[in-house]
Amino acid sequence: MVSGPSRREVRARRLPTAVKIVIAGGFGVGKTTMVGTVSETQPLRTEELLTDVGVGVDDISGVERKDSTTVAMDFGRITMRNEYVLYLFGTPGQKRFWFMWDEVALGALGAVVLADTRRLSDCFPSVDYFERRQTPFVVAVNCFEGAKRYDLAEIQMALNLGPKVPVMLCDARKIDSCKQVLIDLVLHAMKVRGLVDAPAPQQV
């Protein structure tokens, strides 16, 4: 008797599932860095140099050394164990570019809201946006050098997050840290959307 292919063999032959993920947060929080760090392809960036035109418009307090900004979106891609291909879309952080968020977020499984404890209030618009859209999201605190560290429970309370919203620390410059944030987001989004029977992505 000839047996059919095993479940593992079937999964190996199956094309990976495409998943759209949004990377959001305030100005200078590390969205472009995160997409660039984790992308397995050359990331698409739409950065422009900051000029005197932005004086009085863009608040750079706390990130005075930043000399460029995303004006449309960042884009990258990463494959997780040949089961998922995550397409990463980084949103622009400044208020004058928020009108593009609806297009960037359309069809996303979930979102990562990057936070900076030096400017924690800057991620409120992103949190509010995804809560209103009922888009599953996690909050990842980018650990900048010299920034004060807080307990995750304190950050969750300061952002007025519900108990089911995951909060974690990350370093947007380190690939393993970024991958873990994305895995945690996908697991959270699958649970929220009732996709618990789908195979979970694993670290590569």
From TrEMBL:
Pfam families on file: ATP_bind_1 (PF03029)
UniProt-recorded Gene Ontology molecular function terms: ATP binding; GTP binding; hydrolase activity
Swiss-Prot/TrEMBL keywords: ATP-binding, GTP-binding, Hydrolase, Nucleotide-binding
Keyword field contains ATP-binding: yes
Family, similarity comment: Belongs to the GPN-loop GTPase family.
InterPro entries from the UniProt entry: Gliding_Motility_GTPase (IPR052705), Gpn (IPR004130), P-loop_NTPase (IPR027417)
SUPFAM superfamilies: P-loop containing nucleoside triphosphate hydrolases
Protein name as it appears in the record: ATP-binding protein
